[in-house]
Amino acid sequence: MRMTEVTLDVLSGHDPSVVGVLTGPNLAREIMQGQPAATVIALPDAETSSELQQVFINPRFRVYTNTDVVGAESAGAVKNVMAIAAGHGIRQGIWRQHSRNARDEGARRDDTTRRRDGR
Prior knowledge:
Oligomer: single chain
Shape: globular
Low-confidence stretches: none
Mean pLDDT: 83
Radius of gyration: 17 Å
């Protein structure tokens, strides 16, 4: 189950149009240090996501909105896997080739998904 599905399961009766995700690329430590960062708020209800965008946005924290909750959750999960792979590549001293492989595999999977979904 995706995290929004878990949330709706636990909070039965909660309005599903206002259950969504806040996803990176960002790190809490960098945000707290005032470093430039960005995030995506994905909710089925575009009006609610725009309201939340205004709560969080500031000159060093760019907030984007989207109604594709499944896409944002999936992209966040893939980003985490790629970050782990990148860290492994750096530790092994094979970062350049490792990052190319991860990038190419991600692009291949994206193309496969788009063809499958008719996009």
